[in-house]
Amino acid sequence: MATTTMSDFRVDPVSGLKIHRTANTLVKWNAFAAVVFLLVGGFFGLGVGLTRMPSVQLLSPEIFYLSLTAHGLLLLAVWIIYFEMAVLYFLGAHVLGSRIATPRWAWAQFWLMLVGTILIVVAVLQGNSSVMMTSYPPLQAEPHFYLGLIIFAVGALIGCFVFLGTLVVAKREKTYQGSLPLVVFGGVTATVIAVFTLVSGAMILIPTFLWSVGLVSHIDPMMYRVIWWAFGHSSQQINVVAHISIWYLIASLVFGAKPMSEKVSRGAFLLYILFLQLGSVHHLLSDPGLTSAWKVVNTSYMIYLAVLASMIHGLTVPGSIEVAQRRKGLNTGLFTWLRKAPWGNPVFSGMFLSLVGFGFIGGVTGVVMSVEQINMVIHNTMYLPGHFHGTLVAGTTMAFMAVTYWLIPVVFQRKIALAGWAKWQPYIFSLGAWVFSIALMGAGTLGVQRRHADITFAGQPLAYQYPEIAKGLMDLGEIFGVVMSVGAIMYIVIVLASIFTGERIKEDSAPWPKVEDADVVAERTGNKHVGMWGMEAPGTFILAMILFATIVLYYFVNFKYLSTIWGLS
Amino acid sequence: MGTAYTPPTNPDWWREPIERTEIWWIVLAFAWCIFMFVWMVGWHFVGPQNMSNEAYRTTVEAYSAKVDAMTEKYTIREDEATGEPVVAPPPGSDVYLAAMQWQYRPILELKKGEKYRLHISSYDVGHGFSLQPENINFQVYPGYEQVTSVTPNKTGIFAIACGEYCGGVGGIGHHSMLGRIYVKE
Q1: Do A541 and B24 touch (CB under 8 A)?
Q2: How far is CA A486 from CA A421, A430, A479, A489, in A?
Q3: Cβ proximity of A563 and B48 under 8 Å
Q4: Any idea what DSSP says for residue A532?
Q5: Going by DSSP bridges, is the β-strand pair B54-57/A567-568 parallel, antiparallel, or unpaired?
């Protein structure tokens, strides 16, 4: 087996992380590919947004549907999964101080995903594969569209096994003592879900590919949807786990915080492994031929145990920050710890905006819309894009952007160029994403359908007019969609400028300022007992109660609305 | 001592007590989880708006025969906008609605406060039934016939838009797909 020497590693002087150079190169390439495809996918997204603005309607229907297919696949799949590959290699190799297992297979992951992506993009741009990212049969795309997806998924699957292999190597070579660090445990959770996800994708896309070349005669549209969503929805669950791990990581990096309770946080990750994938049924709630008993058990993730897990993480991450800040002396009042947080540091501000955006926009609406009955009044309206931009953009993408500002000095060994821009970027991007999401959800509540090139039904004899306010909300939402795009472009420019022209950081000099362990400070200053009301994190508890009240209120508002519509049984 | 990116400093972390902030939150969140589950199940028994559990396998031929028979039997007039038949099946009867690229047909007329067994299926690809402005949304597939008991509780002209991308050519397509239901006293 390969032997490693010390020169295969360098040591990060601040964190003490032992960094395997080959693993580091792989992290760099995967992260770079992710950012490139964020740019391409975002470009299509901007076209989609400007078309859905009733007062602009930029693109013709053909180009609109083509762009929407490209936007969905490039951002939902390619940007996110490339970045996740970088995160997994970082968690496996960098965090555990291990060499990466089977680097050649890791390169196979990178190139297969690239080949798959190019096939998908070519197929979509040729114009005969505008089937949306969901590609529901009997609508049919070109064979290389499905082939591209399959190759991409196989690449990602290889990446998962490289990560798992790296864990085995680290354990065997004793690069760490005791249990896995919490963030790596999160990485394992993400990987378990990812394997389930990618195998489901292969299970349905391989027969669909064979159907597109004429070797299989029929794909049942319901069967397709049931299995496809085990891929489509679960892949979003990978994102949730990945960005929550990043929240924990950033809390420790910026504040020297430790998890409030290893048991609670790991238990919550375990609930994800057991129940999170059941959420695939959220997409099938208004489908014929599936019983309500099956829908209710699955849509609730078995009595909402995965929702419980998310609510736990939502408290423990800011809670750990609060405890750390209080131990460092900010132990007065309810929110001094938060007010005096480093809001000008994009690593922190991006992470915290991701936490709040994901919780209040993506989380609250996700819980409510996945109620079997409520789903009937939002299913496939603009509410859906509103919701999942709340989770995927305001939540996952914001968290990935935040951690990038830390990875550039540590992994790329470059200083952040345009630091002034970086300071503002999380705020601009989040402002855009938040208002965009909320406005679109409003329009969806008023009936505006998703995936429509034109909401005016122009020239139709049975024409229907949406309420004026719905059109206004679409205009407003898309204006903030442009703000979101500006935020994304700023991020891309900052990343590219930093990694190509940023000032080099020498190997033995500190890439980022040392943060003192909060417990060490507390030990020294005697500031060990913190908090009030017998709680170590009372401010966080108040914030959590605000979230709780929001969910309860929003839940009943939706049932009130539901109770006014036609009787259905 | 310790961080999220280093192994737990206490190897026996499983036995560490849980801090009060977390305990309270877990208890409260779990209670809400159970409430939401019970409420969702309970609405099936007490709520007037629920998903139907009745669905059948069908074929385009079999389903279109039913649609045509109903149209022939219960046409009451021609629609002012399109000249197509408006079909008014009697209350309590089976009503057959077909989704096809790119319209919902036939045009229906129902009575407020009466219950109908509304069948929906597709002649070609997947579609979405989206009743506006009520904003009631279902999936529709070829080969599957879903039966929902519907009771209109308002009068007016209701549009059926398409909620699932179903292709298109030029300006005609998914976004221009419509049907109509009149509800009268």
Answers
A1: yes
A2: 11, 11, 11, 5
A3: yes
A4: B
A5: unpaired
C-alpha dihedral sign at A328, A331, A332, A333: positive
**Residue of chain A whose Cα is closest to the Cα of B155:** A566
B143 and B96 share a domain? yes
Q: Which domain holds residue B22?
A: 1-47
Q: Which of B175, B178, B181 to mutate to test the interface with A (most CBs of A within 10 A)?
A: B175
| Mutation site, A241, A376, A403, A523, interface B, largest B CB count within 10 A | A376
Is residue A12 within 8 Å of residue A410, measured between CB atoms?
yes
Same-domain check for residues B37 and B89: no
Helix (H) or strand (E) segment spanning residue A364: helix A364-369
Going by pLDDT thresholds of 50, 70 and 90, the confidence category of residue B57 is: very high
Using the Cβ of B49 and the Cβ atoms of chain A, whether some distance falls under 8 Å is answered with yes
Is B16's CB within 8 Å of A262's CB? yes
Interchain CB contacts (distance < 8 Å): A and B = 331
Per the document, the length of chain A is 569
B103 and B130 co-located in one domain: yes
Q: Same domain, yes or no, for B125 and B141?
A: yes
B33 & B100 share domain? no
Residues 122-141 of B with CB under 8 A from A: 124-126, 128, 130-141
Q: Which of A177, A184, A566 sits opposite B150 (nearest CB)?
A: A566
Q: How many domains does chain B have?
A: 2
The reply to whether B42 and B76 lie within a common domain is no
Interface confidence (ipTM) of the complex: 0.95
What residues of chain B lie within 8 A of the CB of A306, using their CB? none
B84 to chain A nearest CA, in Å? Answer: 11
Burial of A347: CB neighbours in 10 Å, binned 0-12, 13-18, 19+: buried
Task: Classify burial at A297, counting beta carbons within 10 Å of its beta carbon; exposed 0-12, middle 13-18, buried 19 or more.
Answer: middle
B80: closest CA of chain A, how far (Å)? 10
Where on the phi/psi map is residue A123: left (φ > 0), alpha (ψ -120 to 50), or beta?
Answer: alpha
A236-292: per-residue pLDDT in tens?
A: 999 999 999 999 999 999 999 999 999 999 999 999 999 999 999 999 999 999 999
Distance CA A409, CA A15 (A): 12
Q: Give yes or no: residues B73 and B101 share one domain.
A: yes
Is A58 strand, coil or helix?
coil
- The nearest CA of chain B is from the CA of A24 a distance in Å of 17
Q: Which two tokens stand for residue A550?
A: 């929001």
pTM of the full predicted structure? 0.96
